[in-house]
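Sample pair:
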Amino acid sequence: ASGQLFSAPGACLGAMADADKGDRLPAAERKRLKKEAEAKAKAEEKAKKNAEKIEQAQASGKAPAKEENLEDLDPTKYRENRMAALKKLSDPYPHKWDVNISIPSLIEKYKDIESGTHLESEIVSIAGRVKNKRTSGAKLMFYDLFADGVRVQVMCQAQYHEEGDFAEEHAKINRGDIMGVRGFVGKSNKGELSVFPKSVKLLATCLHMLPKDHQGLKDQEVRYRRRYLDLMLNEDVRRTFYIRSKIVNFIRHFLDSRGFLEVETPMMNMIAGGATAKPFITHHNELNLDLFMRVAPELYLKMLVIGGLDRVFEIGRNFRNEGIDLTHNPEFTACEFYMAYADYNDLMDMTEELFSAMVLNIKGSYKIEYHPLGPDGPPVEIDFTPPWRRISMVEEIEKQSGVKLGRDFDEPDTLKKLDDLVAKLELECPPPRSAARLLDKLCGHYIEDHIVNPSFITEHPQIMSPLAKWHRSKPGLTERFELFVNTKEICNAYTELNDPERQMQCFLGQAKAAQDGDDEAQGVDHEFVTALEHGLPPTGGWGCGVVLVRQEQHQGSDPVPRYEASVRKS
């Protein structure tokens, strides 16, 4: 009793001191403490209710659902948990989900309805990947559903749910999963277009924890090796794929509207001809024969012209066993066309028309911005407005170097001048230091590396162009051009060589280069020479790699090229 008598006054004094101390605190601090106390009380009340629910569930013999935030788990544990949950489902991978409208079409159709409107009579069925999942109590949750490059909000309310238990159905679905939604369209009170589900279904589970939207996927190695993740998480990559499709379709339509016939030619050949490149070798088991994967379809396409198909083209894969960088891929898509009764001047005009119209059609302007050092680096403006500059290769090298070159590039004196000039400029040119290889290095140094806007490099030496026709007025040169944009080759074309005797001489020159150690030199194709002996009309030939270097792509030595890039026709 005495203890109680002495303790009561002490407690009162302490309370008075705390109250007096509280009165001296700033108003903002008192408000913060009050909120903390209220939040603590709410948390305690919630914990008490949860404990009561668990006791009731245990008393009734039902195991309570264990709440666990999957996002807080490490990736390995996350995958294990999801696989375990998947095994409990009766139909984890449904065979079919009826989709009656795409998300882009849904947005376009219902974008103008009033805020707060619910069109309960119009039932839609959509599907897509869950990018975000948010809960707002036990009877309301939100999803961000992505498909075809666009997003729509799915606003799930228990009052509209018709199939299965609301909590159980939504517990199956997590960020990254493929989800089917059937419900009606409306807008939230804040004006957000949403689908209000009557039913939801897990269509495919993502067993791996994906980076969140604000994190993105930045690791270049992962992006290159797992392209599906790059597409899933980086929207600009999806746009690049669509642009590539537009480029291919534009080229196909351009040629088709001008009377060209699309064909397919063999992928495997006895001789790796049609381009100056090192081939891949494969083996045909039935014939017990080594074959070359094609480096270009050129010779077969010209045989078709000989056969009477005056305008032919092919869009297909080529294979070149060469280096890998941001502008070269061992396998790539290329387009080649051949047009009887045309020469390289006609093809230059067609090339200007094709690419300038393509850029205008896809980008809406002749001028585009390219970011060679990444999205945060300074942009380079490229102007595709025709007409484009035309540069004679050897004449420009002479002009820039101040060295006069003979046009017989097999002469020792001319070869020595080229070798001395390359050595003086300290340009790397590994053996064999042939005239063709030395000229290529000089062209890169004096011309290619300085081109930004589209420009044609013309009149290549014959030794660099074994399949091109000799120039009608300039000995030693050919009627050939290459289109360069921002230092990169985009396409290559020439008046085709149709003299079988000269063609054989060029093939023999290539064979000699191969004996001297040039592993990119072409072989002697006797069958093609025989075809030429039947008469190839005056013809222009054109080749282009499908070019897709992303605008924010870095110039660097990445392990795998991001997309196909320009390639040489020969």
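The first strand starts at residue 118 and ends at 135.
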